[in-house]
Amino acid sequence: MSRDDLQPRPLAQPWLGPPRSVPLADDHAVDLRGDALVGRRVALLVCGGIAAFKAPLTIRALRRQGAQVTVFASPQALRYVTTDALEWASLTPVVTTLSPQAEHLSGACPFDAYLVAPATYNTINKLAAGIADTVLTATLASAIGRMEQGRAAVLVAPTMHGSMHNAILTASLERLQSLGVRVIPPRDAYGKDNIPEESVLVAEVCAALPEAPFRSRQFVVVGGRDPVGQTVAEDLVRRGGRVLHVQLACALEPSPITQPLVVADGARARELVRAAPGPWDAVIDATGGSLGALATLHVATKDGDMFSADGSEVDMPALLAGIRESLT
Ligand SMILES: Cc1cc2nc3c(=O)[nH]c(=O)nc-3n(C[C@H](O)[C@H](O)[C@H](O)COP(=O)(O)O)c2cc1C
Q: 9 CA distance to ligand 1 centroid (A)?
């Protein structure tokens, strides 16, 4: 590190280049972060909430787990996001009206999951009342039929100003949940039901798939001061597992997917694991041994055979596949 590196950075520093020397990626490409949705078809239904502007990010996050995404957008949604942006992100024409092709039925290539995000007050209440008078509600009528047959998951992410979250909405959400629709809890901030982070939406879709391998399984994962434990815990959630994630305090940003309990040290982690009611299908220690005999599975971390300190050299797909194998 030179003395220049230690200078304060002026905000208005001019930046003139240099031209890129690395090979250019395909403009539409995403880097695969996991395989939980490989071979899966996901319908993203975008309603006319202001959070519709985030839909292209949700699409790309779904694609990073391997999903093939088709977007359905209401006319109101297209006030807040353009068809061009949705099409660029999904690589597929956006369905904005129904045609003689009966797009709402997805007959020849059925969807594995339907994610309504953002889901408006209007569309949620119509869905719960069995109304099918728009491109979104007609598609969702068919989606619920597939869900009832165990062939698809349906998820809604309610997103609206807190004043709209009234008793009518609550009753509709209760009805939908009783039918088997997954209601994704909103991010609660500024008196609003905000759309959750994309990683959370994607994890919910993965976990809701009828074939998710760890549905009805429960795990404890204790993470150490590198990202390995967090990555393992998130992967188990995406496979449908219920995970108690305990994290030793460190610089890692807490995962919005697993919402870890952050503890000061291994002794406190042991106390929590002993107190946690269970039963657990596995207690996974990724701290390098803090849990001792409490753990049923030890994942080597930075001082072990496989891992570098920042996680960068971890062959994570192989590691995760190995862990999953050992749990099935
Ligand atoms: C600026 C603006 C933002 C809106 N944001 C939301 C919202 O976040 N959630 C919601 O339920 N409705 C919101 N609405 C109202 C919906 O757009 C309206 O109820 C519309 O009929 C929804 O149609 P759709 O469900 O077919 O997309 C908003 C309206 C405006 C003008």
A: 42
